[in-house]
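tool_call: predict_structure(chain=1)
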Amino acid sequence: MDKPAISGNTITVPSDLNYLVDVDNFVEGFLREWGLDDSVVADIAISVSELVNNAVEHGSATKTSPDDDRAVKVTVGKVANSVKISVTDQGSGFDPTEIDDPLAEENLLKAAGRGIFIVRNLMDEVDIKTTPEGTVVTITKNL
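tool_result:
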């Protein structure tokens, strides 16, 4: 994969942070079309950016060969009074209970390790599933 692919409410991008702006524009387009408040759009956009960053850096980054064409998929949906977004990578997954507490004194000055913490604080639900194909993180924001 060498460029973003859009199909309905899903965008698939190469596992490269250079495509984060494409994901942001795609997601925010739906959120604004649905007439959501700027603060809600910002919370969701920050959360998706954090998840895509994690998917690229930790999930789909583990390539098995130079020809390994890993990608990150983002699906946007609105169900009743909530927005649900799934971010899928092709990595081997992780155990969210093993993430260091970013508020612990020994972690306060670390440069990384706050993404999931931020997402959990901005969203109403965060569901993390590891499958044989990769990791799927689904976030829900109630409207």
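agent: The longest helix spans residues 38-59. Proceeding to next step.
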